[in-house]
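Schema walkthrough. Field components (list of strings):
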Amino acid sequence: MMHGPPRAVEYAAPSTRSSPRHGGFVRRVRALVVKESREVLRDPSSIAIGIVLPLLLILLFGYGLSLDVKDVPVAVVMADASPDAMELAAGFRLSPYFQTRIVPTMQEAEELLREKVVQGIVRLGLDFTWREQAGGATVQILVNGTDANQARIIQAFAQGAVAEWYARQAGEGRAHSGAGPVMVQSQLWFNEANDSRYFLVPGLIVLVMTLIGALLTAMVMSREWERGTLEALFVTPVRPGEILLGKMIPYFVLGLIGLVLCLLAARFLFHVPFRGSLALLVGVSMLYLSVALSIGLLISSAVKSQFVASQMAMLVTFLPAVMLSGFLFDLRSMPAFVRGISYLLPARYYVTLLQTIFLAGDVWSVVIPNTAILAGMAGLLLALTRATTRKRLA
Amino acid sequence: MLDSILRILALTRKELLALLKDPRGRFSLFFPPIIQCLIYGYAATFDLNDVPYAVLDRDHTAASRELLARLDGSRIFHRVATLGQSEQIKPVIDRRDAVLAIQIGPDFERRLQAGETADIQVIADGRNSNTAGTATGYVGAIVEGFNADWRTAHGGIDPPIQVITRAWYNPNLETRWHMIPSLIGTLTLLQTMLLTAMSVAREREQGTFDQLLVTPFRPAEIMAGKSLPSILIGMVQAGNVLLVAQLWFHIPFAGSFAVLFVGLSLFLLAAVGIGLLISAIAATMQQAMLFSFMVMMPFALMSGLTTPIESMPRALQYGTLINPLRYAIDLAQRVYLEGAGLRLLWPDLWPLAILAVVTLTSASWLFRHRLGE
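Field assembly_structure (string):
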């Protein structure tokens, strides 16, 4: 500030100084923004979190995270090497979901499961063929339940593989028709490819906005408190609102850069369908960004220590954005108490908006209430931040 | 040698005092992990226990009502709308009122009576394809039950093959059982790494690191004195998570505590090594914090915590081999749920040992290198 850049000095021309209330406002905010931006540009860690981290997250989310199961190692225990049993085993081998390994005894298979070489065991008993013809043969599917979600998917696919084999047998007239009287035909709307990336990538935008908005600002402001440079700012003619604006604008811009990066990646790298309107998406993102920024500023002016501020920012914004926003874990499954907490979290509304705008389109019955709540939160938090900063000054 | 140990202990004591004397610091050290543990325990679940659905029954016969009664009677499904025509499906799904819409065709009962296959159509909201898949699976299971009863009641034949499924280590397939033991590693990694990185960075930012350098401490002793408190606190936190898992969530512990803590100490050494590496690079606390975070994010995402490693592309799977958290999560789950002993844990233990050695030696090299300047 005080050793301001030459351009800032230029703004300090007498003509503007004569009306400090209006001309001064723009000038002072501008000087603060310049100062803050220089600090951001000079510090490799801000650039890292503003640009490198979003890129890293995009790649990890897009390529690394997937809830879709494929190539699961399973052991097939075949005590009975009859053609029917062989064919069933072949069904598992050809399936993209499994990588099979045929073992003769159950003991061996269990040892493999214990060593985690395989995730599941498909067991065809000794009397498989005999019983199959007599009716009442059993196929045992044993999975390692440690990862419950994966285990459930493996079970379902294994049952599917057996059913498919059975349908094939029935089709060839080698078995009596056993297709169930009622068949379920399912359709997946908005995500026809059943690709978990389609909902993970919009969720990624929420994480990036939260990181830039809350974590970075919480650190930045509390650093000024810790070092006492904020007090130095207070004795200058800048008003508290101007300090806040000066802090918010650079990080707002950084957040928008992150948003653009994510959008480009979603569109051109991962081909996530985009069915809503871009203007709406950018609008709600800006709203969310202001909410996140005010939370970050609030935290830092409340605790004034970098370490505690960073911990608080994690606890209050980032973790809930991952866990309680519905981006990864469905809110409907949570106990009512936890769901109640989730209503207090801005990330929840933003996730709903993003998933809808990306995959379903501008569904106004979803967009209007969620946007209204976000706007309300933004207004409230901004006013609150403003109020606390003024109090500290007095 | 003894002098050296005494100096390390003195520094450890000083570090612990600096960390624990501030009530806010104490609070932020022990409270957040417990809260996180509770939140993850309740929130992190892929299980569904409430599926709102809408029905379009064009048949209105005893058979269709019977099928719907089974859905309504399950604890999982609850009907939010009974629709009259197919145009109404779209708004119900769009608004997120229902996860599923089930459509029963007008000839449902007639086809069943005639021994033909009757289809029911299930439309699922794919905005979260995982939820949609699970919910559709539940419908399938209920229809399966309906089929079996229909066959017995109407003289059909039982399908000749029965599939029996069973899950080891987590019989009811609860996500929580998977999640909470994984947190032992995840939460301690974050805190240990951050603590180590920040404690060095704080001294640097405040200029007290230079004072430390003029004391008789050797660089290795300073490193040890900075590492020990973090490891101790990491151990205590692991203990806290274990307590929450057993006393609050009642997840049965199948293994041995000694084995778990042997594995964890290797892991914590690696975590501290990474923290020291970060602190050697970072000039300020903000940098230390943000760099730790940038390391933590990929570690957490690529560890098998939320999504299985086997589903990742091959290249990334190789990348996870240098991720200490990957081994810690595997180790904690296997000791906790499977009761594995040291022999079965060997594939997790030796990579952790190597990681600890590599990170600690390179951190000490970097330190000496930087201090020489």
